[in-house]
Write a structure and sequence with these properties.
This protein is an alpha/beta fold and 311 residues long. It has one domain: Rossmann fold (3-Layer(aba) Sandwich), CATH 3.40.50. Strands 1-2-4-3-5-6-7-8 form an 8-stranded mixed beta sheet, with helices on both faces. Helix 1 packs across helix 11, helix 2 crosses helix 3 and helix 4 packs antiparallel against helix 7.
């Protein structure tokens, strides 16, 4: 999971509930002081939340972007059903992203909308893009258009895949995720949390230990996860299909895409992410001194890379 460096919202940012055709989503919103150059929708990863992007809000808003970071269905303050695995299938979560996109567009005045997904969120936004492309192509076919609208018909001005990969996660991380999936039906989230803390203490690694305030937040956020969401999304991560070839066609049709990561990553090897960028024909940025969460670990460099891409 990502560890936010702090929790205090910057000036001009606020928490809100974003109403969509698929229900309400907890969000953080940062508005620019002056003219709006564009908007951004930021989608977190497995066991994450909107707070994973808190350090990006100020620099992105200062550059003129209206930024909205959300909790996905089943995460932290959004919540979701406890007995419906289909609600957390990647296709359903992709539909949530499309509903969020429509809600942001309905607000008006936001300019072009840029879409970003971190880790598992990267595969969710990929699903949203592919579903929107398929719908646009079908609409073009049924209306008799000679060619589909391609990326020009999509509601996003750009796509960023942050610390995500083409398919299933690294085998070592998949093993840990399978263990979590196996124990969730029989162990409570508090019990699992205590085991995780004991394992971290036993590792002897005290680098980047969070402040007491952030540590309390991580505990609170973990307990707010919907167990069924963890089971379903974790199951996707260990067996995710490679859909890069499909997405490459959309990128080629005109959707500017950035693949961004740190110099190390436990979930998807960095060379694998570089190869994915090459297959997509996407721009590639590697953030120095960052791991799986450059958004939280090196927010200034990450914001600079995003702004360069969006411009």
């Amino acid at each position: 999971m990502s560890t936010p460096p702090f929790l205090t919202l910057p000036s001009g940012a606020r928490a809100l509930r974003l109403a969509t055709a698929r229900g309400e989503f907890a969000a953080l919103r940062a508005d620019p002081v002056g003219a709006v150059r564009g908007s951004a929708l930021l989608v977190p990863g497995f066991t994450g939340s909107k707070e994973d992007f808190i350090a990006l809000l100020e620099p992105l808003a200062a550059a003129g972007y209206r930024v909205t970071a959300v909790d996905q269905r089943g995460q932290y303050e959004t919540g979701g059903p406890h007995d419906d695995p289909a609600a957390y299938a990647v296709a359903a979560l992709g539909a949530d992203v499309r509903a969020l996109t429509a809600a942001l567009a309905a607000e008006g005045g936001g300019g072009p909308l840029h879409l970003l997904g971190h880790s598992f969120g990267g595969q969710v936004v990929r699903e949203a893009v592919l579903a929107a492309e398929a719908e646009a192509a079908e609409a073009a076919r049924t209306t008799g258009a000679a060619d589909g609208p391609g990326a020009a018909g999509l509601p996003w001005a750009s796509l960023t895949l942050m610390a995500t990969g083409p398919g299933a996660i690294d085998p070592a991380e998949a093993e840990r995720t399978r263990l979590l999936i196996d124990v969730l039906p029989t162990m409570g989230l508090e019990e699992i949390w205590q085991v995780i803390q004991q394992m971290e203490e036993g590792s002897g690694d005290r680098a980047r230990r969070p402040s007491p305030e952030v540590a309390a937040f991580l505990h609170r956020r973990w307990l707010a996860n919907v167990p069924q969401a963890l089971i379903t999304t974790g199951g996707h991560l260990v067996a995710a299909p490679d859909r890069v070839a499909e997405l490459a066609a959309t990128v080629a049709a005109g959707l500017p895409t950035l693949v961004l990561s740190g110099v190390r990553d436990y979930a998807w090897p960095v060379p694998e992410q570089t190869a994915m960028a090459r297959r997509l024909g996407a721009h590639r940025v590697v953030v120095e001194d960052a791991g799986h969460s450059p958004n939280a670990e090196q927010p200034a460099a990450t914001a600079a890379a995003l702004l360069a891409h969006w411009r």
